[in-house]
Amino acid sequence: MAEETPATAHASPAHQQPSPPPARPARLPTALVTSEHFLDHRTPQGFPEGPERLSQALALIEALITEGTIPLSSVLRLAPRPATEEELSVVHEPGYIASVRRAVEALSIAAAGSKGDAPGPIRRFATDVYLSPGSYTAASHAAGAALVALDAIASGAARNGYALVRPPGHHALPAHGMGFCIFNNAAVAARYAQQRYGWERVLIVDYDVHHGNGTQDMFYSDPSVTYFSTHQYPWYPGTGSAEEIGAGAGRGTTINVPLPAGAGWSVFDPIFRQVLWPVADRFKPDLVLLSAGFDAHFREDPGLGEMRLSTPDFSDLSLEVAEIADRYCDGRLVAIQEGGYHLTALSQCAATLLVALTGSDGIIDTLGQPEPLRFRWNDEAIIQALYQLHDLSGYRRKARRPGPIPGSQPPQATAAAPEPDQAEGKTP
Ligand SMILES: [Zn+2]
After folding, report:
1. Most CB atoms within 10 A, among 40, 150, 303, 396?
2. 5 CA from centroid of ligand 1 (Å)
């Protein structure tokens, strides 16, 4: 959780020497790595993943810093650099990287031949992936942004970081882009941290509403990277069943939490407290990466996500992840932007995530909460199924929150729920 606020001196009797407040090192700032390069990756009109996602989030964050809601001293603004082809090739096939570069070069040549201020051509490259003349620069900077954040943490300039980027990355496979993603930004960052800084055990937490099939694929047999994903299931891209747990030496280091449509904080909160914590306790990460997609927000377009998290809920989950980083790896945490397509929800969640990374539980939200449910999910059944599958007994977990969980209804409204031994993790 957030660090304590500086101790306030207790009132001392006049005859006693007042003891000075204990010296506390100032909290290092959060590296915010972002760039207008990301606006140059253009997609067709009406496509959900467009430049306005980033421009709106950036505008809100800038306004909050200017007005002092986010203290200037708590944020270290940094420009990204492009990830090199060598850095990308630790998770992507060189031929794929070259094919993206060549396709963008061809578009740039075509754009040079067009007249005036025409925005230039846009070309479909893969399923749900378009390229424009600025796409290689944007995508390589998106992969490089988290690397800049990692450098800032390693040098002692920042406590943690937020790569506010587009295009997103967690669907990108070694040799294929898909689902709005070109390069797998989180995967590139995990390998860079291992190779550059020796942060060998990397925990990737992914709360985007979609399963990060690309990230899972890249580390499926690798015990040095634990991938933990909560996602709507079944849903795009179709992967992410609880039974996908890794293979070979990596068996057990993929933890999928497939959730039914409509799940909200009353399910996510106990899963983070009672499943993610023991996963982290067993793994003891040297670094935590957060694939921060906000498309599980209740205001998301139902074509993209059907979950019921609110902006304050995302704050809670992000603070939980930050607390895990505090406990196991000196707070080393880099959040990397994934999805989120409702522009207001995305920008307010992005600002709230930045606030959380600075150590505050402050919320930037005008959207409120979803309508209360008329039943309660059997989250205990989901948790027990995951305990059995992953043998998580005996590791540190956080206590469930006492009392009724906000958003759930009184017992008389509770629908029949499956017994734990009948549940399969994805059953409400
Ligand atoms: Zn998503």
Report:
1. 150
2. 35
CATH number of the domain within which 190 lies: 3.40.800.20
pLDDT for the residue numbered 9 = 37
Contact 367, 348 (CB under 8 A): yes
Cα–Cα distance measured from residue 166 to residue 116, given in angstroms and rounded to the nearest whole number: 27
Which pLDDT score, from 0 to 100, does residue 117 have? 62
Q: Which domain holds residue 82?
A: 27-390
To the query of whether residue 342 is one of the catalytic residues in this protein, the response is: no
pTM of structure:
0.89
Catalytic-labelled residue, pool 141, 171, 176, 210: 171
Q: Please report whether residue 302 resides in a domain.
A: yes
| Residue 359: partners with Cβ closer than 8 Å, 6 or more residues away | 2, 3, 27, 74, 322
Domain membership flag for residue 5: no
* Cβ burial 133-143 (10 Å sphere, 16+ → b, else e): bbbbbbbbbbb
From 83, 276, 287, 291, select the one nearest 186 (Cα to Cα): 291
Number of independent structural domains in the chain: 1
* Interatomic CA distance for residues 4 and 128, integer angstroms: 44
Convert the pLDDT of each residue in 358-376 to its tens digit.
Answer: 999 999 999 999 998 888 8
Under-50 pLDDT residues of the chain: 1-15, 409-428
Cα of 51 vs centre of ligand 1, distance in Å, is 16
Give the C-alpha separation, 221 to 296, whole Å: 28
**DSSP collapsed to 3 states, 342-373:** CHHHHHHHHHHHHHHHCCCCCCCCCCCCCCCC
How far apart, in whole angstroms, are the C-alpha atoms of residue 349 and residue 55?
14
Question: Residue 93's pLDDT is what?
Answer: 98
Side-by-side strand order, sheet with 30-33:
75-78, 30-33, 160-163, 333-337, 287-292, 202-206, 225-232, 254-259
Domain assignment of residue 215, yes or no: yes
Backbone angles phi, psi at 375, to 5 degrees: -150, 175
Ligand 1 centroid, distance to 338 Cα (angstroms): 6
Residue 26 pLDDT: 85
User: Residue 33 is which amino acid?
Assistant: V
Residue 221 CA to ligand 1 centre (angstroms):
24
- Cβ proximity of 184 and 91 under 8 Å: yes
The answer to whether position 350 is within a domain reads yes
Ligand 1 centroid from CA 293, angstroms: 6
What token pair was written down for 356? Answer: 């959380």
What is the identity of the amino acid at 24? R
